[in-house]
């Protein structure tokens, strides 16, 4: 009796969850599918070598990237991206926390930081290439030189904006310096830090591709330029699709991490709205 | 034999700003014994919060001194705990209720089990032992202030300082929280310095009510509250003596607002 009623009570929400999942997937994929169909039909009527049909691109995508090329080009690119992004985040948070906490240091560095941030990072490629040669270090340096700033500047702002009452609470309970950093300053700045990280990731992806387009013999950026120069248009489009997919994957991973780290933040926002 | 806990002598605080200096606190002198519950009440804008910040070592007074157990207070002392008015900004939203209560104990008690025991005990004292795993923002305002009180209780201070702690909660919750403060004082013998702008609250809670003048502030009167120790929201507030005391304090505050009370001559420097 109890078991059967339990089963009935459980099956209904599960049914609804499925409906929601299918509905959500329908909304997420509906428009892309329609666009692909339109593109496919249009490409089969007006044949152009520069805009091949999605089927052709799909073929080229599989034949180009599934196989040794994944190891030769995709993995090195992803590794540079990962190292570059991780370094940017680490440096940005550490430097940003120090600059945010030490008032005079911030005042001293602010104009310089604003200037450095204003330099478009791709123009550093020629200089860095001269200094470091066509190495991985050069590409990672370029990625860090561009994606450091949003993390750094957001961390500085976030650290400075720590609530006065929260700081007084920490002082009144004589929290140690490490405790204040670990339990007050960094969590309080974390929403701003995550905003910076989100921007840094998209900048890092762009710079990964651009840095590989020059002085490079492997990587996604190198491949796409190579295909374009050899009139391998289908393969070139395949590379662009792959970059798009990597971007989407990055965004998904980021939002999963963000939801975990900022659970409290979204919670307080929801309460404030209710 | 009174056991002297807190001594404030000739406290003066002047804020310097670009538009000139403002004398927030003129000259405050009072003392508090261990085990007392003293309320400080004054007209709005009389520098109550400034006074508390000076007493708790968060703010440096321009002149005068604060001594806790005979030791001058120059920075927040480890045997004092604070409960702020803005509970929403004093609790850390990224920590659970237990995490918030435990945080100040981390360097005081290295043993995890000892901390756990103190946290459990403090949460039970404020009636929140069931909410330990919740986050502060999941609780009502009154419950959040209970968490802040539990944090202070777990810290085991010699003196608990409360800065208008119930100004932002509704009247019914406020009555419950007042009884909680009385219970902590009676059952645990806590020494509490309670700042409020609410005259009824000061008489209901306190054994003494220190009435402040308007700014620049000095102690206008130190009223002894001769109500029975066992207090109750209904019967105590109905006592003729309660009414007489609150009327007296009310009149003092009115005089303070009008600036009629005359400041005693300043002590020789």
UniProtKB/TrEMBL annotation, chain A:
Record organism: Quadrisphaera granulorum
InterPro entries: MetI-like, MetI-like_sf
Recorded superkingdom: Bacteria
Family: Belongs to the binding-protein-dependent transport system permease family.
Membrane-spanning intervals of the chain: 21-45, 78-103, 200-224, 236-257
Membrane-related topology note: Multi-pass membrane protein
Protein name: ABC-type nitrate/sulfonate/bicarbonate transport system permease component
Entry's localization field: Cell membrane
UniProtKB/TrEMBL annotation, chain B:
Protein name: NitT/TauT family transport system ATP-binding protein
Lineage: superkingdom: Bacteria
Xref: SMART domains: AAA
InterPro entries linked to this entry: AAA+_ATPase, ABC_transporter-like_ATP-bd, ABC_transporter-like_CS, ABC_transporter_ATP-bind, P-loop_NTPase
Domain ABC transporter per the UniProt entry, residue ranges: 6-239
Organism of this sequence: Quadrisphaera granulorum
Record keywords, A-Z: ATP-binding, Nucleotide-binding, Transport
GO molecular-function terms, A-Z: ATP binding; ATP hydrolysis activity
Lineage: Bacteria, Bacillati, Actinomycetota, Actinomycetes, Kineosporiales
Keyword Ribosomal protein: no
